[in-house]
Amino acid sequence: MAIPVQYSLRNLWTRRLTTAMTAVGMALVVFVFAAVLMLAYGLERTLVSTGKSDNVLVVRRSATSEVQSFLAREQTRTIATSQEIAAGSDGSPLAGAETLSIINLPKRGSGKPSNVSIRGASPQAALLRPQVKLVEGRMWRPGASEVIVARAVASRFQGAGLGETIRFALRDWTVVGIFDAGGSAFDSEIWVDADQMMQAFRRTVFSSVLLRLRDPAEFDALKARLESDPRLTVDVRREADYYGAQSEVMANFIRVLGLLVTVIFSLGAMVGAMITMYAAVANRTTEIGTLRALGFPRRAIWTAFLVEALALSAVGGFLGILAASGLQFVSISAVNFATFTEIAFRFILSPIIAVQSLTFALLMGVVGGVLPAVRASRLHIVEALRTP
Amino acid sequence: MTVFQLVVRNAGRHKLRTALTVLGLAIAVLAFAMLRTVVAAWYAGVEASQQNRLVTRNAVSLAFPLPLAYRDRIAQVPGVTEVSYANWFGGVYIDEKNFFAQFAVDTPTWFRLYSEYHVPPDQMETFQEERNAAIVGEKLAQRYGWHLGDTVRLRGTFFPGDWDFVIRGLYTTTLKSADNTQFFFHWERLDQFVRQTLPDTAGNVGFYAFTIDRSREPADVSRAVDALFANSLAETLTETEREFQLGFVSMTEAILMAIQVISFLIVGLILIVLANTMAMAARERVTEYAVLKTVGFSPGRIARLIMGESLVIAAAGGVVGVITVFPLVGVFAAAVGSFFPVFELSPVTVAAAVALDLSAAIAAAAMPAWVVARTTIADGLRRVG
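Predict the joint structure of the above. Result:
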């Protein structure tokens, strides 16, 4: 015969203060646990959603990011005339040579400088990246010192708002448009006409070539051909893989550091749960004796106390996840180690993370509750009834 | 029986509960000290910087170089005592996971400028004579098992190709916060390579570092330097080394903030665990405290008993935490060496952790002490618990 679940739940309610304190302690841990996973996931989603699988990025061999890559103009032409490239609506190939560099801009509010990616974009740049949409203002005019900026950059950096000017490379650049890149890494970039940028910086080389395959299956053929071409020394990668790799270092760093902290932290909360459950057993010795005398087997007592611990941790888990879900409204920025520029992203709560957090909470409850439950089930009937 | 003995005996009445509480507190103290050490490691570069050392870089960003010709013009600015320069190399040793800083530096000025890096004179001499020699930090050499005379191959990212270096010097640091996991080699070697492969970009310097006369204001000198190159193709930005390093820290501010928030949440957890234990203890002993009051203990004295018990438990937790944190920091430092070149537990961190632990003890005891002190004798004795 089993003890009704109600018994366990009512007991928690009776000792509200202790229950609340223990649950809040667990909620803190679950909050941190969930926040760490959400942060790493948010970063990954941002970078992974940046690359399209049928787009191919060509950079100089052994460059780990576009910033480190240099391709001469003839080389970019050789690449852009590959037969595997898809044709645009006007029949011209969907490929463009781009320049990516870093400029230092002061942040709004604090005035502290930070690195921003600036992309000298080809005429095909927006066609190749359908997630990038101009939401305010207009595109730059050819030949003018004009830029368009991502919304996150416009709000974060001084002089980057619509109609304002940014000064770099001895020129004042007017911000004529704001674009939205659907939560991808381009949301942290400033775009300018590639030719204008090369002139202003006196650059003679491009950084990369981005192209669309007419058939994604032809990737291997293109890769083999370009990488063995004696005129080029290049690496050919799918755009999605390139951005996925960028998120790896940072996301792993967040996960390792964060989870290490959470594990240490959770030990504290488990101890808290254990204290609470041991006290619950000690307070109710006579009661347990009575239940045993009434005929409830040891197993039922053990289950009742474990259910109590699980209920306690479930409350903590829900509170923690609830608090963590509030983080989704927070947008933060961190440095992308691959390009050494700022990247803006959000905490994202996925169903998997919610389940993981709740499981983690229940696990804490089990670990904290199992020993006290064993003690309760081992009490001798006579001795338990004799205690005052 | 003295009051202290009574306090200790009270703490020992529920051995299991006290032990668990001590464990919980020890873990919290440990976690707090660890996190603060991580934060300190973040700022290590800032700590190690010197006020009379300035850094000049391209105003656009560090990704843009400066012409070598600037060296002599900077040297002529009044107050400037010694100029050196370096380029970030950014090579990869075997795998991208093995990250450490590599600079092509102008020698011997670089090591005169960064006087906290000590290279034995004989090693310095051999380094000067060999074009492909390198000087590496002692810790870095330890991490990868390098010895003097070993050849190390780096794969260039900005400067493609395989680069072989012979280790001719190991440097040690006097400052605890100074980074001794860096890799230095001759700037000339890098420049020769660039001259052959991309002649357009030869003679370019990543950034200049220079020392100034201590009697000069750094701000005046940096303005004077930047004024020299205003409206030129490569405008400069000159900062003290400290500001330069802070610039790097501010880019990772968000993560730093998160760590700081967590470290304070941990203090919250200490408080909750301890407050729970103290509340339980006080609840069980209501009758007992009424008896003590009957025999003449003042409410204040009983409050002090509870406070004392809380402090004893917290102190025990603090001691256990502090004892375990030292070996743990050692293990962690070895694991994250490439992320944090400097990972040292400072006495201030330990003191802060213990202080927070003891303040939490006082806060945790406040509520039960107040309740017990206010309960009348009759109510206390009547209570069936």
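Chain B touches chain A through 57 residues (CB under 8 Å).
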